[in-house]
Amino acid sequence: MSITKRLMYVNRRAPYGTIYALESLEVVLIGAAFEQDVSLAFVDDGVYQLVKGQNTTGIGVKNFSPAYAALGDYDVKKIYIEKESLDQRGLSMDDLQHLTWEDENEDYAEKESMHLVSREELADLLEEQDVVFSF
Amino acid sequence: MSSIEVNGKQLETDEEGYLLNRDDWSEDIVDVMAAEDDCEITEAHWEVINFLREYYDEYQIAPAVRVLTKAIGKKMGADKGNSKYLYELFPYGPAKQACKYAGLPKPTGCV
Amino acid sequence: MATLHTVNKSPFERNALDTCLRLAKQGSGILFLEDGVYGALKGTAASEKVAKAAGEHKVYVLGPDLAARGMQEDQILDGIQVVDYAGFVDLAAEHDRVNAWL
């Protein structure tokens, strides 16, 4: 019998300026093979990773933002966004991609992955994890 | 630098035979790659190859084999969405071999 | 005489922008690029100080870096001019020196 661990990836960096966002995404996609209880948190500049309408043609770098929409396929169904980080940047949930997952047991019904949480709620979630990966 | 010759043109690949430039892909490449693997391409193979190309266009990633299996099952039915069916089509590994034929990079996390 | 200052760090993560604004002489050029472009946006915790700086300096933002990050031109603070790579080169050539706040 295998033990399922609760893993949370905490994303705090903007995309493209540094490699953190892409590295985190790759680790999440690879790590998904281990079938653990995975969640992602987007905090500070990390919320910029999910901003809609990214177009990297002009900077000659691959736009990896479409891959976030595949997270549901990888059984990553819990995406937490810290509200204070959005507020500080003048953003709302409408500015972000709307990520969902499909429930195979309910005829592929589309379910919500995105959860807006307060600082306190996120602090509680962090306390509940077995492992936290910070990017 | 490795390469593959298709219709008299040398196309760059990595050392494992994956195309370096996705724009180089054409249907003819599939026949050349399959001939090297001694694999006969059927309609069933094309279903998977086309599915992978569409998946990459949408998400910009090559799906892991588990994800591919699940997604094929959803789109084409449970009789195709299982690893036995996919391994029979692509004995070198459905994600690995089919991604190569589809001109995609090797799936993330696939070593 | 005039210096072109470039800022490529997010104002929410590093203090490069603050130091740049503290030390830039009036009439300097300030160009936001890479993650620095987040400093050019309306409605953020950094907007007020950047709007003030746009009154004292010529402030620019690199368009391709905005687009990469999903930001539209109507989200940019008034008084900030969007430039492309050729505009960046012109700015560098027009100024006496470039001071890159990394």
Structure notes:
The complex is a heterotrimer of chains A (135), B (111) and C (102). Chain A is 20% helix and 24% strand. With 135 residues, chain A is an alpha/beta fold. Chain A has one domain (6-134): Hypothetical Protein Ychn, Chain: A, CATH 3.40.1260.10. The longest helix of chain A is centred in the N-terminal third of the chain and has 12 residues, at 20-31. With 111 residues, chain B is mostly helical. Chain B has one domain (2-101): Orthogonal Bundle (Arc Repressor Mutant, subunit A). Chain B starts with a strand and ends in a 10-residue tail after the last helix. The model of chain B has no long low-confidence stretch (mean pLDDT 90). Chain C has 102 residues and is an alpha/beta fold. In chain C, 33% of the residues lie in helices and 23% in strands. Chain C contains 4 helices and 5 strands, in the order E-H-E-H-E-H-E-H-E. Chain C has helices at residues 16-23, 47-56, 63-68, 85-94; strands at residues 3-7, 29-32, 58-62, 80-83, 97-101. The longest helix of chain C is centred in the middle third of the chain and has 10 residues, at 47-56. Chains in contact: A-B, A-C. The interface between A and C is medium-sized, with 24 and 24 residues.
Number of structural units classed as domains of chain A? 1
CATH class of chain A: Alpha Beta
> CATH topology of chain A, what is it called?
Hypothetical Protein Ychn, Chain: A
Do you know the CATH architecture of chain B? Orthogonal Bundle
